[in-house]
Write a structure and sequence with these properties.
Elements: H1 5-15, H2 21-28, H3 32-44, H4 52-60, H5 63-76, E1 79-81, H6 90-93, E2 102-106, E3 116-121, H7 127-142, E4 146-149, H8 155-165, E5 170-173, H9 187-195, E6 199-202, H10 214-219, H11 221-224, E7 228-232, H12 241-250, E8 253-257, H13 267-274, E9 278-279, H14 283-294, H15 340-349, E10 354-355, H16 356-363, H17 367-379, E11 383-386, E12 390-393
Parallel strand pairs: 3-4, 3-7, 4-5, 5-6, 7-8, 8-9
Antiparallel strand pairs: 1-2, 2-6, 10-12, 11-12
């Protein structure tokens, strides 16, 4: 009997990490991934979401190559999860572009049972931001939540360190493969995650260094695995602002640490708060808010009493579940000199809104590179994202 994971590995290789096509095939095509494979090129070429480039990739990657990947993963001790696996996080099935394959090192906590909160923010973080991230990570983990983060320097590392000091479990989602030497400074932190029963997760089978679009593709998985996301130190124009977009698209709660009053490094944080994000100074408040909506009850306060130095907390307002609108975007001059790929994207969108699949087919760019360029255009205020991974020109 053929391992059904083979078909998912095959699909992910052809469509690329971050593509919504494999899950669409699983949901809509008769027989799912295996039925799609059996249908062959004649059928593939009739489908609107299969470009000529995709068809070539599908035909050029045999199942034997997918089998080799699974055997390699098994030899490395990695777990392979696909949407057909029981342990695949249910939360990921409810986003528009679930990963076709997740490679796991360590022990993935039961995210279908335990609360999970994402924590992310600035790499070049202020000391106050690092203290806040450590405290938030500690309190979330001590309260029983799994902390999900990216593992970068700055806020991510501090949140993970705080969670580990509370003997909590962490999932670090990487923009590279599991054997990559990327970010050697955090090798010890990643090992601590594994030693304490957590996991490293990635969509990438073989990517030693982050490629163009890798962070944008990876970033959707942090809120995707979580019930809510806490952002610490968000500047007005930064990649961290995209977590707010993902949270809105995926129906996740967005919490923002307000930071020092008037600090320029927190301009994006204030913008998100103005738009309806929930202000939090304390990880316990996040868990209490989640409990109102999920029935989860955090551990007693005494288990959270110790830990890193506390950040002074102003009185907290009553938290309300407010749908997060899209982050505001800076106005930009459409006539400014842009790279050729971005100009081509704007030309495609000039005819009307387009999906990622339509843009892939029109431009011949893989999903990762396409999302990288779209991110830059969105941060410059030239394009707007719509539900279902659709985009249009702004204004």
């Amino acid at each position: 009997m053929i391992d059904p994971n083979l078909y998912w590995v095959w699909l992910q290789h052809a469509f690329g990490e971050g593509s919504p096509a494999p899950y669409r095939i699983y949901r809509e095509f008769p027989g799912g991934p295996e039925g799609f494979y059996q249908a062959g090129p004649v059928c593939w070429n009739t489908l609107d979401y299969v470009s000529e480039q995709h068809a070539v990739a599908l035909a050029g990657f045999p199942l034997a190559a997918a089998q080799s990947r699974l055997e390699y993963a098994a030899g490395m001790g990695w777990e392979v999860l696909t949407p057909e696996c029981e342990k695949y996080p249910d939360a990921l099935r409810n986003i528009s572009d679930p990963p076709a394959v997740l490679y796991i090192k360590g022990r993935l906590p039961d995210l279908n049972r335990l609360p999970a909160i994402g924590v992310a923010g600035a790499r070049e973080a202020m000391p106050a931001s690092e203290d806040a991230a450590k405290q938030l990570g500690y309190q979330l983990a001590a309260g029983g939540a799994v902390v999900v983060s990216g593992g970068a320097l700055g806020v991510d590392s501090c949140a993970i360190s705080g969670a580990l000091s509370a003997m909590g479990r962490v999932v670090s989602v990487l923009p590279v493969d599991l054997s990559s030497p990327y970010l050697a400074q955090n090798a010890g932190l990643r090992q601590r995650i594994l030693d304490q029963g957590g996991a490293l997760a990635t969509e990438y089978f073989s990517q030693r260094n982050p490629g163009r679009g890798s962070f944008q593709v990876r970033n959707r998985l942090i809120p995707g695995m979580s019930q809510g996301v806490v952002l610490v130190q968000v500047s007005q124009k930064s990649g961290s602002m995209l977590y707010a977009r993902h949270a809105a698209d995926q129906g996740r709660s967005l919490y923002v640490y307000p930071g020092p009053e008037g600090a320029a490094e927190y301009a994006g944080s204030r913008l998100l708060l103005d738009q309806g994000a929930l202000p939090v100074w304390d990880g316990g408040a996040v868990l209490e808010d989640r409990g109102r909506w999920t029935g989860y009850r955090p551990a007693p306060a005494k288990t959270r009493a110790k830990g890193p130095r506390r950040v002074p907390s102003p009185p907290q307002p009553v938290l309300e579940a407010v749908p997060m609108p899209q982050p505001a975007r800076a106005l930009a001059d459409r006539g400014a000199d842009l790279p050729p790929e971005q100009k081509r994207l704007l030309e495609c969108l000039a005819a009307g809104e387009r999906s990622i699949g339509q843009l892939e087919e029109a431009l011949g760019l893989p999903a990762g590179k396409l999302m990288a360029q779209m991110t830059l255009l969105e941060l410059d205020g030239l394009v707007e994202s719509l539900p279902g991974k659709r985009f249009k020109l702004s204004g």
